[in-house]
C-alpha cells in the first residue's frame, strides 16, 4: 500500500516551476521524458485534486524541482521525496493526500495479488474457526483431505461476499451518477482503489496467531479499519462528498449482508465477519 519516493513514480515530464529539492547549482534543465509521454499521463495534486501534467523536473547534479500546482499554489506531490514508511503511516492514518499519491501519482500493479492474499487471510480465519469447533485430531488421510476442501470452500465464500460488497457499491454509484457525480465514473480505477484499501485484512492473521481473550474486539476493529480505508478510497477516487461515500459503503454492506444471510439459510459454515461479530462464542 505504501509505496513512494521516486522509484514508485510513473514516468512524466518535469516543470520549471517549483521549489528546489536538494543542494547544488542548477544548470540547463534535462527533461527525463518526452513531451508526448507526459501529455498522455495525467497526475493529480494531492492537496486540491486538480490535474497536473508533471510532478517534478530532474536537473543535473541531483537537483529536483517539485512542480507547484497552479490552482492551490502548493507542491503537486510532496510525497515523491518521502520515505515509503512515512507514506505507509499516512495511509494508515487515512490521509487523503497519501491516498491521492498512491492512487494517482504512483504505478502499482499489485491489486490482484493483494486481493488474493487478503482473501486467503480471510478464508484461513474462517477455516480456523471451523476447525476450532471440532478439535478432534484424526490422522486419517480422508479427514485431512476433507479439511483441505473446507478451506477452499471458505475461500470461495469469502470471494463471493467481497464481490457482493463491491457490486453494492458500484450499483449505488452508478444509480447516483447522473445526479451527484458530474464526471464519468472510472469503475476500473475505483475497483483498484477498493482492492488496495482493503489491505487491513492482512491483520487477520496476527489476530489469529496471537490468540487472546480480546480477539473478537480485534476483529471488529479490523473490520472498522477496512471500511474506513474503503470510505477514503472512494471519496478520493471520485472526489465526492462524505455523505454520498457513506451511502455507497452502506449499500455495499447491505448487499454483502444479504449474501451472508443466503449462505446461512443454506446452512453453510460461513464464518464471515458478520457472523463473527454477532457470535459471542469465538
From TrEMBL:
Entry-linked Pfam families: Arv1 (PF04161)
A biological-process GO annotation: sterol metabolic process
Primary localisation category: endoplasmic reticulum
Membrane-topology annotation of the record: Multi-pass membrane protein
InterPro entries assigned: Arv1 (IPR007290)
Subcellular location: Endoplasmic reticulum membrane
Keyword Cytoplasm: no
GO cellular component: cortical endoplasmic reticulum; endoplasmic reticulum membrane; Golgi apparatus
Function as written in the Swiss-Prot or TrEMBL entry: Mediator of sterol homeostasis involved in sterol uptake, trafficking and distribution into membranes.
Name of the protein in question: Protein ARV
Taxonomic source organism: Muntiacus muntjak (Barking deer)
Amino acid at each position: 500500500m505504501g509505496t513512494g519516493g521516486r522509484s514508485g513514480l510513473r514516468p512524466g515530464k518535469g516543470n520549471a516551476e517549483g521549489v528546489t529539492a536538494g543542494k547544488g547549482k542548477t544548470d540547463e534543465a534535462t527533461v527525463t521524458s518526452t513531451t508526448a509521454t507526459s501529455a498522455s499521463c495525467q497526475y493529480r495534486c494531492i492537496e486540491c485534486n486538480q490535474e497536473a501534467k508533471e510532478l517534478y523536473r530532474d536537473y543535473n547534479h541531483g537537483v529536483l524541482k517539485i512542480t507547484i500546482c497552479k490552482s492551490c499554489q502548493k507542491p503537486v506531490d510532496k510525497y515523491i521525496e518521502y520515505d515509503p514508511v512515512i507514506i505507509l503511516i499516512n495511509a494508515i492514518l487515512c490521509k487523503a493526500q497519501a491516498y491521492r499519491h498512491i492512487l494517482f501519482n504512483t504505478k502499482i500493479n499489485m491489486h490482484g495479488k493483494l486481493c488474493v492474499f487478503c482473501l486467503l487471510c480471510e478464508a484461513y480465519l474462517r477455516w480456523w474457526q471451523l476447525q476450532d469447533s471440532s478439535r478432534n485430531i484424526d490422522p486419517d488421510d480422508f479427514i485431512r483431505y476433507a479439511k483441505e476442501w473446507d478451506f477452499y470452500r471458505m475461500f470461495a465464500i469469502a470471494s463471493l461476499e467481497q464481490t457482493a460488497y463491491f457490486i453494492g457499491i458500484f450499483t449505488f454509484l452508478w444509480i447516483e451518477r447522473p445526479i451527484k457525480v458530474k464526471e464519468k465514473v472510472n469503475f476500473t480505477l475505483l475497483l483498484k482503489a477498493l482492492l488496495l484499501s482493503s489491505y487491513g485484512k492482512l491483520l487477520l492473521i496476527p489476530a489469529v496467531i496471537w490468540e487472546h481473550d480480546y480477539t473478537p474486539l480485534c476483529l471488529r476493529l479490523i473490520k472498522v479499519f477496512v471500511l474506513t480505508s474503503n470510505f477514503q478510497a472512494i471519496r478520493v477516487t471520485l472526489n465526492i462528498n462524505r455523505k454520498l461515500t457513506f451511502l455507497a459503503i452502506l449499500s455495499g454492506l447491505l448487499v454483502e449482508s444479504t449474501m451472508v444471510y443466503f449462505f446461512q439459510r443454506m446452512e453453510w459454515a460461513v464464518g464471515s465477519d458478520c457472523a463473527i461479530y454477532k457470535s459471542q462464542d469465538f
